[in-house]
Automatic annotation (TrEMBL):
<comment type="similarity">
    <text>Belongs to the DNA photolyase family.</text>
</comment>
<dbReference type="GO" id="GO:0003904">
    <property type="term" value="F:deoxyribodipyrimidine photo-lyase activity"/>
</dbReference>
<protein>
    <submittedName>
        <fullName>Cryptochrome/photolyase family protein</fullName>
        <ecNumber>4.1.99.3</ecNumber>
    </submittedName>
</protein>
<feature type="site" description="Electron transfer via tryptophanyl radical">
    <location>
        <position position="299"/>
    </location>
</feature>
<dbReference type="InterPro" id="IPR036134">
    <property type="entry name" value="Crypto/Photolyase_FAD-like_sf"/>
</dbReference>
<feature type="binding site">
    <location>
        <begin position="268"/>
        <end position="275"/>
    </location>
    <ligand>
        <name>FAD</name>
    </ligand>
</feature>
<keyword id="KW-0456">Lyase</keyword>
<feature type="binding site">
    <location>
        <position position="265"/>
    </location>
    <ligand>
        <name>FAD</name>
    </ligand>
</feature>
<feature type="binding site">
    <location>
        <begin position="365"/>
        <end position="367"/>
    </location>
    <ligand>
        <name>FAD</name>
    </ligand>
</feature>
<dbReference type="InterPro" id="IPR002081">
    <property type="entry name" value="Cryptochrome/DNA_photolyase_1"/>
</dbReference>
<feature type="binding site">
    <location>
        <begin position="226"/>
        <end position="230"/>
    </location>
    <ligand>
        <name>FAD</name>
    </ligand>
</feature>
<feature type="site" description="Electron transfer via tryptophanyl radical">
    <location>
        <position position="375"/>
    </location>
</feature>
<dbReference type="InterPro" id="IPR014729">
    <property type="entry name" value="Rossmann-like_a/b/a_fold"/>
</dbReference>
<dbReference type="InterPro" id="IPR006050">
    <property type="entry name" value="DNA_photolyase_N"/>
</dbReference>
<keyword id="KW-0285">Flavoprotein</keyword>
<dbReference type="InterPro" id="IPR018394">
    <property type="entry name" value="DNA_photolyase_1_CS_C"/>
</dbReference>
<keyword id="KW-0157">Chromophore</keyword>
């Protein structure tokens, strides 16, 4: 008998850790609500996770087994459960973040003390973190080179499905805790359905259609042509091998531009692995700039501006639409995440860590590696970042990627009745006209051109050039 400890692999199908456990006899599946981990969570993610756990339990019950759910410290819970069920080993999926790895090391020590074998298995990524390196053995800091190696390496097939014989005949009658039981408020946002069926529906719909337009349309938030798989990949409600397999099949059916579009999607899966590689090698990127500077960056402490950004009240329509989408859906389109992150760091000159904390609290798909990677990219402090002197203009970005204003109008109702031209010239309209067109929508809280200059000077001073 073995225990499988579910964490970011809330599924039965295509689960490498679970399959490894089943090699040693019937498996007892376990999930532990760990206060130390919950301290870093936000309501949308906990709501999504509870829904995913509910589906996972259902799957196990269909197989005549159950998911044992416990609350407490895994260092105590797992050795106790191993003793209770006579399990001689525990398996789990490998963690990438520094905190996760520290926790796993502590659990390993506790299991060693209890004389229970343990094995952590690479499951969440197609390639082991740290396995794709430069010829000098360094972690890649430029995605393009990483991508070529990642693309050309063979990938594993999805893991064969388990049968009821692989699972222990156990039962857990305790209901799952509620959000309130775990100390969380109801999320402000509407959280999408979790579970493997929901993930598979998204994947199938995406691979049947949008994938072939992905490279042309993925940057246009109103088009909604991306997969929306991010929360599922974060919580492992679908296996990455299964996703890759479906994409490879969609790719193999076509040629030319359709093929290129599917490959562009694959490259986004590779970005996810790139950032995991970086976090694996440099756990401190969560709190420290990836790049070195001569002097500390003199970020602006401006609580009012930070609050206006969080509330979607900056007077820059595309930024506000993104920040309001975040509150309403616990999700933001990738292009708009970049624009909003650039605005916080390069227009408001606020430290990227403040923005990271807000996304961490609000995003249903918050993933340490991707979130910190995205923030450091936008702030120009990270890997393969945009150079500090290239500052997104939030007005021209809005005009280019939401030309009809459809996305902006959806999220900023004050602008619903005004023409797209006026939305995209909001910063240039005179005060009287602004008040006439949309009296409840704010004027821009900063002057972009002036802030752009200040941002460049701020970085030049930090680099020692100023
Ligand atoms: C400031 C900032 C913060 C971000 N925070 C997160 C985060 O917390 N969690 C997260 O999963 N993504 C994050 N991203 C990346 C990206 O915005 C989301 O993965 C994407 O918008 C999710 O939508 P989707 O599933 O429809 O993506 P799709 O376009 O369908 O892409 C498929 C999958 O590829 C991965 N992916 C796509 N783009 C990226 C990227 N740029 N970096 C890393 N992985 C990517 C995701 O797993 C995504 O689900 C962030 C980007 C920025 C600029």
């Amino acid at each position: 008998m073995r225990l499988h400890w579910h964490r970011r692999d809330l599924r039965v199908a295509d689960n490498a850790g679970l399959a490894a456990a089943a090699e040693g006899g019937p498996v007892v599946p376990v999930f532990v609500f760990d206060r130390g981990v919950l301290a870093h969570a936000g309501p949308p993610r906990v709501a999504f996770m509870l829904d995913a756990l509910d589906s996972l339990r259902e799957r196990y019950r269909e197989h005549g087994s159950d998911l044992l759910v416990r609350r407490g410290d895994p260092r105590e819970v797992l050795p106790d459960l191993a003793a209770e069920f006579g399990a001689d080993a525990v398996t789990w999926g490998k963690e990438v973040s520094g905190l996760g790895r520290e926790r796993d090391a502590a659990v390993r020590r506790a299991l060693d003390d209890a004389d229970v074998a343990r094995r952590s298995v690479q499951d969440a990524l197609l390639h082991d973190p740290g396995s794709i390196r430069t010829n000098q053995g360094e972690v890649y800091s430029v995605f393009t080179y990483f991508w070529k190696k990642w693309r050309d390496r063979p990938k594993e097939d999805p893991v064969a499905p388990l049968t009821s014989d692989d699972l222990a005949d156990v039962a857990d009658d305790e209901p799952l805790p509620s959000l309130g039981d775990l100390g969380f408020e109801e999320p402000e946002a509407t959280v999408p359905p979790a579970g493997t069926s929901a993930a598979r529906e998204l994947l199938a719909a995406f691979c049947a259609d949008d994938i072939y337009d992905y490279d042309d349309r993925r940057d246009y938030p109103a088009d909604e042509c991306t997969s929306r798989l991010s929360a599922h990949l974060k919580f492992g409600t679908i296996g990455i091998r299964e996703v890759y397999d479906a994409v490879a099949e969609a790719k193999s059916a076509v040629a030319g531009t359709d093929y290129d579009a599917a490959e562009e999607f694959e490259s986004q899966l590779a970005w996810r692995e790139f950032y995991s590689h970086v976090l694996w090698d440099r756990p401190n990127v969560v709190t420290e700039n990836f790049k070195d500077y001569e002097r500390p960056i003199e970020w602006n402490r401006d609580p009012d501006a930070l609050q206006a950004w969080k509330d979607g009240e900056t007077g820059y329509p595309i930024v506000d639409a993104g920040m309001r989408q975040l509150r309403a859906e616990a999700f933001v389109h990738n292009r708009v995440r970049m624009i909003a992150a650039s605005f916080l760091t390069k227009d408001l000159l606020v430290d990227w860590r403040e923005g990271y904390d807000w996304y961490r609290e609000k995003l249903v798909d918050h993933d340490t590696a991707n979130d910190v990677g995205g923030w450091q990219w936008a702030a120009s402090t990270g890997t393969d970042a945009q150079p500090y002197f290239r500052v997104f203009n939030p007005m021209t970005q809005g005009e280019r990627y939401d030309p009809s204003g459809e996305y902006i109008r959806e999220h900023v109702p004050e602008l619903r009745d005004i023409p797209a031209d006026a939305i995209h010239e909001w910063d240039e309209l005179d005060r009287g006209l602004r008040e006439m067109l949309a009296p409840d929508y704010p004027a821009p809280i900063v002057d972009h051109s002036e802030r752009r200059e200040r941002a460049i000077e701020m970085f030049e001073r930090a680099r020692g050039d100023g």
